């Protein structure tokens, strides 16, 4: 389903930008990749990467010192990852009620994924926290890769003479591999298991390698930022979540001043007034002008959340006026209709009023 928000609209935006366009942002619910059972209504989060043995604690400290990431940075990153999972489930969706309790569970070993928690243990934890299930971070590992390239920069002295100075560009790739499981109390076993890889690239520049390194954020900050991405990504995996969409619309058309006036109203948030003018332009005898007006009416309906009406207007633009951009937009709208049906199915168990 996520393809509806990427490749198709990349081409559409490029076409519209060449034809004098503006844009509007829309928030929409995207379906979860893995639907959860209806009886899973409330969850608590847990961190299970706390080393259980002294030997594992020693190896964690040794790894942090050897890689240069620092002592305890994986533990701090894991805590941040679990925090973000809970925040994203609570704030970016209304599929679950999320308890504030962040459970700390012993269990980390040199294995990446431990065996699942015992069903009775899961049920006991859920009863104690009064939830229907647990979202548990069960594996967390960071890896840092540094690379650099040499170059030159030029500057002019007071006499106007150019000089070349060697420079160094440094890149640090911070990768985090996480493992999540979601457990249900009614079932007592794993409802979902996922191994994720997330990374971000950080860069610095300087006249020397040490100076370029000093421009990089501290490793613990880099791990924290990638951990946030990982936590948010898993929350979106198991719960419908809001995403930001960008829609472009035509701002003018030759021989029709109403298109420009309507665009000004849309930019001011007066989509009803803009739609009234676009409906007038849609009666223009020139199919290029009418096609743009039909297209903009489709965008106006999507902004208001009326996808069936948006599809009807897009069809008129695409097939009555042969508007190429509208044909692309129609595919996107049809995909959104399918995604909306999936979201409604995934949320049908949520009590009304949430």
From TrEMBL:
Q: Please tell me whether the keyword Nucleotide-binding is annotated for this protein.
A: no
Sorted alphabetically, which InterPro entries does this protein's record hold? DUF6340 (IPR045921), TPR-like_helical_dom_sf (IPR011990)
**PROSITE patterns listed in its UniProt record:** PROKAR_LIPOPROTEIN
Lineage top rank: taxon: Bacteria
| Pfam families according to UniProt | DUF6340
| Signal peptide location | 1-21
What keyword terms does UniProt attach to this protein?
A: Signal
Asked if the Swiss-Prot or TrEMBL record annotates the protein with the keyword Chloroplast, the reply is no
What name goes with this protein?
A: Tetratricopeptide repeat protein
Tell me the organism. Hymenobacter glaciei
């Amino acid at each position: 389903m996520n393809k509806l928000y990427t490749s198709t609209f990349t081409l559409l935006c490029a076409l519209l930008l060449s034809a004098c366009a503006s844009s509007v942002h829309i928030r929409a619910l995207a379906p979860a990749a893995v639907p959860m059972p209806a009886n899973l209504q409330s969850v608590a989060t847990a961190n299970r990467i706390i080393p259980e043995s002294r030997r594992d604690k020693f190896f964690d400290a040794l790894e942090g010192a050897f890689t240069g990431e620092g002592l305890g940075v994986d533990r701090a990153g894991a805590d941040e990852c679990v925090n973000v999972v809970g925040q994203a489930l609570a704030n970016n969706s209304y599929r679950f009620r999320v308890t504030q309790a962040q459970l700390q569970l012993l269990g980390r070993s040199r294995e990446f994924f431990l065996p699942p928690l015992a069903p009775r243990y899961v049920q006991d934890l859920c009863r104690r926290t009064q939830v229907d299930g647990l979202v548990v971070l069960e594996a967390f590992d960071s890896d840092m890769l540094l690379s650099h390239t040499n170059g030159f920069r030029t500057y002019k002295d007071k006499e106007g003479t150019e000089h070349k100075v060697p420079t160094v560009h440094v890149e640090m790739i911070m990768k985090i591999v996480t493992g999540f499981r979601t457990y249900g109390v009614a079932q007592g076993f794993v409802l979902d298991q996922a191994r994720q890889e997330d990374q971000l690239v950080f860069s610095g520049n300087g006249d020397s390698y040490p100076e370029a390194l000093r421009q990089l954020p501290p490793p613990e900050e880099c791990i924290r930022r990638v951990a946030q991405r990982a936590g948010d990504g898993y929350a979106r995996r198991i719960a419908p979540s809001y995403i930001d969409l960008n829609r472009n619309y035509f701002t003018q058309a030759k021989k029709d001043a109403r298109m420009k006036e309507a665009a000004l109203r849309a930019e001011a948030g007066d989509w009803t007034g803009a739609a009234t003018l676009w409906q007038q332009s849609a009666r223009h005898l020139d199919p290029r002008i009418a096609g743009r007006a039909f297209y903009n009416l489709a965008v106006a309906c999507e902004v208001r959340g009326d996808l069936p009406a948006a599809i009807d207007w897009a069809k008129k633009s695409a097939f009555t006026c042969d508007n190429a951009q509208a044909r692309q937009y129609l595919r996107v709208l049809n995909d959104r209709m399918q995604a909306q049906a999936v979201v409604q199915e995934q949320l049908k168990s949520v009590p009304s009023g949430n």
